[in-house]
## 1
Amino acid sequence: MIITLKKISLILFLVVFLSCKSQITAISTSKEIPSSIGDTTFVNLKDYSSDFVYDMKYATDDNFLKAKVYDCAECYLRLKTVRALVVANQEFIKKGYRIKLFDCYRPLDIQKKMWEIVPNPEYVADPAKGSIHNRGGAVDITLVNKRGRELDMGTKFDFFGIEASHAYENLSQKVKDNRMLLKSIMLENGFNSFDSEWWHYNLKSALMDVVSNEKWKCN
Ligand SMILES: [Zn+2]
């Protein structure tokens, strides 16, 4: 009788233990509960919004490196960057536009390759300090209209010249308006602009986050 009770206790213990374990596993793999993960966790933007347009230049050879340096076209950022970006995009959508992304989080090794080609801190951050891209807090973006056409911003993405600067005056009013539309809503949503590149925005609170060299999974 004593042995039987022990056996029943053991079975009950195993049932409770295994059911708890399966619940824990289910919660930790869910991406539907953002509050369960930390603000600085790296996440994939597409898991939080389907309202963005992607043209991830470094997953192709259409970039100044002339090389495909990402294995796949994913936009990883820290969760707090994703939150701010989703709100900014909602503002653009109300006005008939949406954000198109050229680059997001960038592993430090890629930063080193960029610095070898363009060792100029006006255009590429020195990998010794690390870019905000390496911290998961920067995005390179433009705006597209309802037909998916990019607004005229005066230069292409990654144009390394004075014409890409916010301070450059010799631009049409339309280009100035387009740049100002992008800049004003990004600044209202926690981002800083970068003087020499109209496409680059940093989340203000990302400066203190650590540089990373983690690669994301492609599948
Ligand atoms: Zn950038």
## 2
Amino acid sequence: MLTGYSAFSDVELIADYSLASNFYENDTNHPIPDKDNNGAQSSITVNHIGDAGNINVEVNISHTYTGDLILELHSPTGEKHILQKKSGGGTDDIAKVYSIDMTGIEAQGDWILNVIDTVKNDIGTIEHWSITFL
Ligand SMILES: [Ca+2]
Ligand SMILES: [Ca+2]
């Protein structure tokens, strides 16, 4: 209401949007296809406008041989960041937080976690992941 605004012209309004919308998650389970170059995709829609800056990506995957896996993060504008690639050997499961500098990349839109299982036999599931804008 612009007509009422002048009555409050000495009042300074401050809103901290970073507190309202800096954490996004996807809790849906996505089975990872065994030895499949497309892998499993899980998306998170972010309505946090502006530069992504530094982010924390938390990933929780159940798997019986995590050395099979390539984990890629795709930004809304298509930049790819490899979180890890065939590391961990025969270790079960991934529960990690990756700290990434995404300065210069727009935050708003669909972020995709793509998990590719490169070796036949052992299988797993994306259980949960999240993005926190710091
Ligand atoms: Ca889940
Ligand atoms: Ca496998």
